[in-house]
Write a structure and sequence with these properties.
The chain is an alpha/beta fold. It is built from 16 helices and 7 strands. The protein has 2 domains: about 270 residues, Glycerol-3-phosphate (1)-acyltransferase, CATH 3.40.1130; about 110 residues, no CATH class. It starts with 17 loop residues before the first helix and ends with a helix.
Length: about 375
């Protein structure tokens, strides 16, 4: 398949480029240092010999990425479950539009689930702000990532968004491959997951001129995906960032802080993880009144996605305990045991103890972490009409 030249700098790598990309990685001193830190005592020539068998993206992911994820699942989780039963089995041309919990693992675990089910792995949108080193860009493009320009100027932003929309449509319609996108730019640090209308505007920028807004969104087959983590290993980092921004509105997270977040998110304790996928919302979009103003229509589509994500949450005891602690009552206590509450309180104190910032406001920091765990339950109860 011929890939249009306009996508050259942003596209994911193809099967015929795998061998060269792997060798480029293994010849990069910075990447070799990372590899030695993960797989201690194995000479680099062994890796080069081993990787000769990687001739496709799928073989690279199954041979290199999946074993790494198995290690993460074993050491940093208590299990990964999924429910993909709502997906039509005969097709793979979907956009998984997802809430966002981890910079790296959200899409990686989705790939793991799909690959082990004999499906295509997803193409992944990743911001160029995270491509801090050249080897990171090579690795993510080898892992079916396409580059989203987060550094575009105001003048460049419109065309950058149009190009991104055209590429996503090319992947869905021409490559007939699935795509993963976060429902918003960056993670919702308070876990109040809401679809940004700008994401839907971007998706609707491509397609034939005679297509309506509704038809353009329907043709991309959006499937809301809910990712539930029992514990967020970055909760203390997010809480600290909340206070730093509160105390200094001009605070900007450093590149090192981004790397710390990535490392903590990958290797930190996550407890149980669940992936819940909804069926494509094509018919729900089609049922909307398309005569309303454009922004109002997009608000309605975002609401549909949000409701699916909220209903799909896996609710853990820590979510219910956090809500009771936040409100100072016991309305959820029938869903958890005294031992589970004591364990969560011990966990909370341990996470707070990791925070090292000037003049820590402990009450504020505690409230921020409790809110992160309570919000999925609050949204789930509202979406399912529970009190």
């Amino acid at each position: 398949m011929e890939i249009p030249a306009e996508f050259e700098k942003m596209r994911s790598l193809e099967d015929n480029e795998v061998r060269g990309a792997v060798l480029t990685l293994l010849d990069d001193p910075a990447f070799r240092k990372v590899v030695k830190g993960i797989v201690k005592g194995v000479p680099i020539w062994v890796h080069k010999l081993y990787t000769k068998r990687f001739k496709t993206v799928n073989s690279f992911q199954l041979g290199m990425i999946c074993p790494f994820l198995v290690r993460i699942l074993k050491n940093a989780t208590t299990g990964l479950t999924k429910d993909f039963s709502a997906l039509p089995q005969e097709r793979q041309d979907f956009i998984f539009l997802s809430n966002h919990r981890d910079i790296v693992l959200d899409s990686a675990f989705l790939d793991y689930i799909l690959l082990l089910s004999g499906k295509k792995s997803v193409e992944i949108g990743i911001g160029n702000n995270l491509l801090i080193h050249p080897w990171i860009e090579t690795l993510v493009r080898l892992n079916r990532s396409f580059i989203v320009n987060r550094s575009a100027t105001a003048a460049e932003l419109l065309e950058s968004s149009r190009q991104l929309s055209r590429y996503i449509r090319f992947v869905i319609e021409e490559k007939e491959s699935p795509v993963w996108l976060a429902q918003r730019e960056g993670r919702a640090k308070d876990s109040d997951d809401r679809t940004q209308k700008s994401v839907l505007k971007m998706l609707a920028m491509s397609g034939p001129d005679d297509m309506t807004l509704s038809e353009r969104l329907q043709s991309l087959h959006i499937c809301p995906l809910t990712i539930s983590y029992e514990y967020d290993p970055c909760d203390w980092l997010k809480a600290a960032e909340f206070q730093l921004k509160r105390d200094n509105p001009d605070y900007v997270k450093s590149e090192q802080a981004d790397l710390d977040n990535m490392k903590t998110g990958i290797f930190g304790l996550k407890g149980h993880i669940h992936y819940q996928v909804s069926a494509p919302i094509d018919s729900e979009i089609a049922a909307l009144d398309s005569s309303v103003p454009r922004n109002q229509f997009l608000d309605q589509v975002a609401h549909i996605i949000d409701m699916h994500i909220f209903k799909g949450y896996r609710i853990y005891p820590c979510n219910r305990i956090a809500l009771d602690m936040l409100h100072g009552d016991n309305t959820q206590e029938s869903y958890y045991t005294p031992a589970e509450k004591e364990a969560f309180q011990t966990y909370l104190e341990g996470q707070l103890a990791k925070i090292d910032i000037p003049n820590p406001d402990w009450d504020f920091l505690k409230e921020r972490i409790l809110t992160m765990y309570a919000n999925p339950l609050i949204n789930h109860l509202n979406a399912t009409n529970q009190k």
